[in-house]
Amino acid sequence: MLKRGLSIDDSSYKDWNLSTVISTDRFVQSDDLLMVLIDENKVIVDYNESYRSWFRLPKGAPTRQSIIDPWWHAVREDGSPFPIWDRPSTITLETGRSVSSVVMGVDMEGVKRRWLLVSTFAAYDEDRLKGVVSWSIDITDKIDMDRLMRLNAAMNRNVVTASDETTFMQQTCDALVKEGGFALARVVVASGSKQGLVEDIAASGATDFFYKEMTPWLTNSPLDLNPTGTALRTGLTQVANDLAHDSRTEPWRKREKLFDLASSVAIPLDLGDRRAVLNVVSDHPNAFDKKTLDGLEGIAREIGFAAKHVRSVQQLAMAFDGTLSALATMTESRDPYTAGHQNNVGQLGAEIAARLGLDGPMVVLVSQSGRVHDIGKIAVPSEILTRPGTLSHNEFELMKTHTSVGFDILSKASLPWPIAEVALQHHERMDGSGYPQGLRGDDISIPSRIIAVADVVEAIMHYRPYRQALGVDAALDEVARGAGTKYDATIVEACVEAIPAYLNYLTG
């Protein structure tokens, strides 16, 4: 791709451009590659149309601009400043070596932070280093998706580690700041005071920005028109992507500038009988585009659901059998296509356990284990649970976490063995091909092996969003094919014997 050994004398910089350095025009003309040619004095000599458009340069703008003092600011992947002497183009100019795939954030006035994957190589005249070619691709969407996945993973952890609602809310705000990269996050509820103020449940980041009387919500006074107050009053998401010019936040303009805050969103939360809002603030303008907003609204839904879940876990030990039913119902409320799945698995598991000769108390425990074996799915976004098509690699990896999440939830409730262990192991397979630990043979508990077979049979028999119901024959064929490899052969045999009683249960 690179033309080396060009016979270009020192006076011919005016004839030196991307087309004379890059042998293939399709690279220069690519809509995806941002290409720029920089000379040995760190001055931009040429760039392609994709570069001009991405950096919002006017058409016909002069190219000879120094990279030492650009019109934009660069940051590293962790958000820290990216000094000019550490950037790929400078390294290549000073050493002659190529640099590949460096992540760099770009901050420009009035624009959301965007991200590039930057590579460089040296351009030579004969054996003399004459400059550097830098080419980049926009990876903003990938960075945003990775950030959202990290947020979801943090949410999963928070659900299973929080002992109360307030702790969970605080952990969520911390994750939005640490993993999401936002300047400030808080959860507020409407107070019952005559002044109509809000009360913070949790907050993280630049929390000194707020003071007690700052966010009224009850009336339509100018102060109450702030995005958070309006979201509380109307129940509708409020976006303010340009705080410097948004009339709704004019009373706090100087304070926003002091704390370097540039955009804000307020999203209503479902916390039962309380009016509540998730308020997220960024130090970049236009931070809340549609994709980001969709992701945050999804997190807001998860907060509401998880808050209910935290309260449910607190009640778990108080009413064991009743709470098992409540948890099963809660899990299946996330995925209407599998309503009753856990109870059915528990019933079939009990029928299998009885035919294996297990004693009565263990048969009951197997049944109870089946009733909550998928409890960890409360930490999986409902959009993934009900997806009709094939899951992406990242989505499937997130789905697989329901086993360890379920184990953590049930372990905290101090439930009898093997309930938590079954939640962890029901996707393990006898040949080691399962997850999450890749256990083999006797390393998998007998109750887990029972529920593994019951889970597969029950799932194949009934409708799923990605396929039609296949019926009992197809279900038994599947476990029969895997008997002795994926599934315990003795348990498969007991399952076949248990099917008539199970079908009577379904139709009774």
Short characterization:
The chain is built from 19 helices and 11 strands.
**How many strand units?**
11
Task: Detail the poorly predicted runs.
Answer: 1-13
Major beta sheet summary = 6 strands, antiparallel
**Rounded average pLDDT:** 83
- What's the multimeric state? single chain
CATH topology of the largest domain: Hypothetical protein af1432
Rg (CA only):
29 Å
Overall helicity:
40-55%
Major sheet: order of its strands? 2-1-6-5-4-3
Structural class: alpha+beta
Distance from N terminus to C terminus (CA atoms, Å) equals 72 Å
Give the name of the CATH architecture of the largest domain: Orthogonal Bundle
Number of domains: 3
The CATH homology group name of the largest domain: Hypothetical protein af1432
CATH class of the largest domain: Mainly Alpha
- What is the string of helix and strand elements? HHEEHEHEEEHHEEHEHEEHHHHHHHHHHH
Which helices and strands appear, and what pairs or packs with what?
Blueprint: H1 18-21, H2 25-28, E1 34-39, E2 44-47, H3 49-54, E3 73-75, H4 88-95, E4 99-107, E5 114-125, E6 128-138, H5 140-161, H6 165-178, E7 184-190, E8 198-205, H7 227-234, E9 238-240, H8 253-258, E10 263-271, E11 274-282, H9 290-316, H10 320-333, H11 341-355, H12 360-371, H13 382-385, H14 393-400, H15 402-412, H16 419-425, H17 446-461, H18 471-482, H19 489-507
Antiparallel strand pairs: 1-2, 1-6, 3-4, 4-5, 5-6, 7-8, 7-11, 9-10, 10-11
